[in-house]
Predict the 3D structure of the following.
Amino acid sequence: MRKLTLKELQTKLFNGEATSVQATQSVLEQIAAQDQQIKAYVSVFKEQALQKAAQADEKLKTGASASLLGIPLSIKDNLDLLGTAMTCGSKIMQSYISSWTARAVQKLQDAGAVIVGKTNLDEFAMGSSTENSALQKTANPWNIEYVPGGSSGGAAASVAADECFGALGSDTGGSLRQPAAFCGVVGLRPTYGAVSRQGLAAFASSLDQIGPIAKTVEDAALLFNVIAGYDENDPTSVNMTHPDYTALLGKDIKGLKIAVIKEPSNAAAQSAIAELKNQGALITEIELPNFQYAPMAYYLISAAEASSNLARFDGVRFGYRSKDFKDSLELYQRSRAEGLGEEVKRRLMIGAYALSAGQYNNYFLKAQKVRTVIIQDYAKVLAQYDAVVSVYGTAFKFGAARDNAFDANDASAVTPALAGLPAVSVPCGLLDGLPVGLQIVTRAFQEQKLLQIASAVERNSKFERLSL
Amino acid sequence: MISANDIKNMANMACLALSDTDLAEYTTSIDKILTQAQMLNQLDTTNVEPTFTPLTGGTPLRPDVVKPFAQRDALLAGAPEISGTSYVVPRIL
């Protein structure tokens, strides 16, 4: 049963061919069998999940049909869930218990979902391999010598290994899409403002977005249908009517104009793009030379915003407190130094420097101007084309993080985030036994079209999901 | 070129204590990143306005209003040290 897609399980639950308790037990058994190696989860709520599943089964018997009723899901451990620990992958969050539930998670629960556990991440979502977690190293379910990507590496691995039927993660500069690509699942970064960020531990507020990781495009659309919407507690969420994001799935893409970014590619991606052409899309190769500046602009902007957001971790109101201090300043400095990891500290220092009086114009302001150029480039291209397509590289081995963190793959990941545009990564094949993800970007709030094209990539694809 | 003194200033701004080992490591790694950051100057941004948020219309604001919060006790319980309804910090005066 664990191998079913979310949609298939939903159908079986509504038809009475399966129960939520059976589905929940199947993923709990898979977690017990696989997660000692994969380490996708940092906490599993076995008893609570089975209890919620039993309650869902009672509701299903009465004909209730909330869209996620009885479906076991995971959530990334930077999302609050009332009364449970939230680590953000950091030692400084030691003993932190959430006092509320994130709005997006609440929406899942209101739709009947069963939360089975919380998944691992790079500390405060800063990283692209999940190696920066202070808790554990998550492995790629396709090959445990490889990273799952990040920062939502636990979320992507949990879905790929059938340890849940879908997941929520967050994406600041690729953190949903890149791990989804590495793990052979679908990762959707919604338009900035489409989903409330309330209850998401803030990393870089002008970039952070919550989104689904799912086994299929249809599953991602079903999850996005639930979490999209305005929330007065997140003033950056946009007050608008959201359409049914499954409505265009399966519709033909004949005549859609798709721009493919000219970059190093591979056979799997080329085959997927050829298939889009076969289905009637008009493919044009384009060059976007300014995108080479995006990874560095992203790094500076996100570090600057993080230096402000993470100032709240001071050893006073929550989390880790150093035992070695003689005054307030030492309390703050030592609690932060002992509680935060190396990469986070590096970014906080660079961020504070980029915002400082003497350096603001050189770094932060310059980066925000580059951001404008990226937005303008996307606007020009998306005025002529329905979507922009690019390719993610495959997973790399543990410890082999690229020396140059600002390469072409990162440009694919960060540019939609800088522009606030929706983007999806959809698996399109294998390279040396590891999944390849194709990224699609559209204009803001055009997720219907985005998912329509993603489902066209899925259609006739030779890619087969992992079976463990 | 970033110096060890620059890193000390950065750590001070970021409110971080650094060991000597940290200082040496961060001097190397942050110098490398900030040197790479100079690449942004190759892009002419004369007359380009900065973008601080992708939202059209700029950052939204809302009234700063106190609202009741149901889990007040749970918030306090998560602190490393409390006294009654107060957080305990080292004596300042």
Chain B touches chain A through 51 residues (CB under 8 Å).
